[in-house]
C-alpha cells in the first residue's frame, strides 16, 4: 500500500516512476541524461521493458546500450479529466508513444513538450502528428529524471 | 484423444441482480443473490454445487460464497486474472472441470460495485504497479488512455473514423433501449450526442466508454447428460479458449511487434480449431466492449473480417438486429451494464434459449468474448 507521505506527494505532484530491479538501470542512466535500452550480451538483441532473461536466446547476461534519443511518434492520446489532481491540473495534455529510430518496435511512452521543463500541456495539440520526428530530453521531477520529447526542427 | 470439451457441458442456469449506478447491497450479498438466482433458474439445489470460478479481481471469494449459499463439499475452484479478460475463462475452466469429472455442478460469477465504489484514478493515494513505471508517470493513467493510444494508431493505419466507433456505440445503445434491465433502457443515443460529447481520452469520447455499474451475475455449468434433466433448454459450451500471445504486455501492448493484433487472435485460433463451425456460421455475437475500438479489433481477431477491415465491417447497420452480425444484444458493457463482461455470457445464453429482449430469430450459435487488449478468453455457445 502507498504510505502516507507518498500519497501526500502524489496529490500535488506528477507520479514518479517506481523502478523495479530490472528497470532501475534505465532510471539511473536517465538521471545522467542518457537514454539506454537493455540489450542481450549474448545475441545482441534489444528488449523492452527490461527483464531478467533474453526471450530470443535465454541468456541472463545483459548490458544497457545508449540510444540516439531520436524517434517518431507512433501514436498519441489526449487525456481529459477525471484524472489524478496533478494531471487534471494540466489536462488535456498529450501522451505520445515514440518508436525509437535505432530500435524498431521499442516504443517509449512520454510527453511532447515545448522545452524540457515545460508543462505537459505546453505543446499546441495541432502539432501532434503520427510520424513526427522527435528527440529526447530529460527533466528533473522530484528525486528522479524522466524523459520528455521535443519536436525535431524540420 | 480421450477427452474433448466440445458440447460435453452446458450452461443450464443464469442469474443476475439489478444493474444501477448505486445499489445498497454489499458485493457479497449481490454475488449470493445472482448465484442463487442462477441455481433456481437451473432447478439445482445449492447444496449440489461443488465447483466455483471467478476473476482474480472478484472481491467475494469462494470460501465466503460457498458458506453463504450452503454449497456442498467443493472439489474445484479457480480464479482468472486480467480483469475483463477473464470472463469467458470462468466458464471454460468449469467446463473442463466438469467434462473431466473433477466436479459436477459449477458456478461462475462476478459481483461488482464499480458504479458506487472507488476508481483508482480519482484517488490521490494511488499505488503504482511495477509495469506502470513505463507509462503512468507520463499520464497514461486509465484503461481509456491505454486503449485510446491503440485506437488512434488503428484509425491512422486503416482509415477508421469516429463514425465507425459511433456505429458500435449506437448498436449497443439500440439493444439496451429494448432491454428493461439495461441501465440505458429508454435512453436513446444520437450521432449529435456522440459527436458533441466530452472527450475522456481523445480520440475516445464519453460514449466510447463502458458504464460504471453496481451489479452481479452468475451462471451454472453441468455435464451435457445432466443438462437434459434441468429446468431450461441447455446451452452447450461448444469450444473455449484463452489467449496470451507471445511477448504480450497487458493493456499497454505497445512493445509487441504488432500491437494491433492482440490476445483475441491467439484465443480465436484455438477456439475455431476446436469447433465444428466457423465465423460465418455465428448467428449472434457478444463481444467485450469496455471501449468501442475493442469491437473492430475483435471482429478482426475472431475472423469475421480481414485485418484492418473491422471498422468498415460496422457500416450499413451490420452490428444491428437484422445486420450481418448482431452484437451485444442486451446492450453490452457500453449500454446494459459493465460487470467485467459477465452480462455478455448470460445474454448469449438468453439468445440461444430464444428469450432475449432483442432476439435474433432462430439463433443457434453464439460467440462470447472477454476483454481484448489483455490476456483474454472466449467461448462458443450452441443450442
Ligand atoms: Zn539473447
Written account of the structure:
Chain A: Pfam families: OB_ChsH2_C (PF01796), zf-ChsH2 (PF12172). Chain A: This is OB-fold domain-containing protein. The complex is a heterodimer of chains A (154) and B (383). Chain A is built from three helices and eight strands. Chain A has 154 residues and is of the alpha+beta class. In chain A, the strands form two sheets. Chain A has a five-stranded antiparallel β-sheet with strand order 6-5-4-7-8. The N and C termini of chain A lie far apart (46 Å). Chain B has 383 residues and is an alpha/beta fold. Chain B is built from twelve helices and eleven strands. Chain B has a nine-stranded mixed β-sheet with strand order 3-2-4-7-1-8-11-10-9. Chain B has a two-stranded antiparallel sheet with strand order 5-6. In chain B, strand 2, helix 2 and strand 3 form a beta-alpha-beta unit. Chains A and B meet through helix 1, strand 4 and strand 6 of A and helix 4 and strand 5 of B. The site of zinc ion has 8 residues of chain A, from loops.
Key descriptive features of the protein:
heterodimer; A: 154 residues; three-stranded antiparallel beta sheet; 14% helix; B: 383 residues; alpha/beta; nine-stranded mixed beta sheet; 31% helix; binds zinc ion; NA-bd_OB-fold (chain A); OB-fold domain-containing protein (chain A); Thioester_dehydratase-like (chain A)
The SSE order of chain A reads HHEEEEHEEEE
Based on Cα principal axes, name the global outline of chain A.
Answer: globular
The biggest sheet of chain B amounts to: 9 strands, mixed
Mean pLDDT of chain B: 95
Order of helices and strands of chain B: EHEHEHEHHHEEEHEHEHHHHEE
* End-to-end separation of chain B: 24 Å
CA radius of gyration of chain A is 16 Å
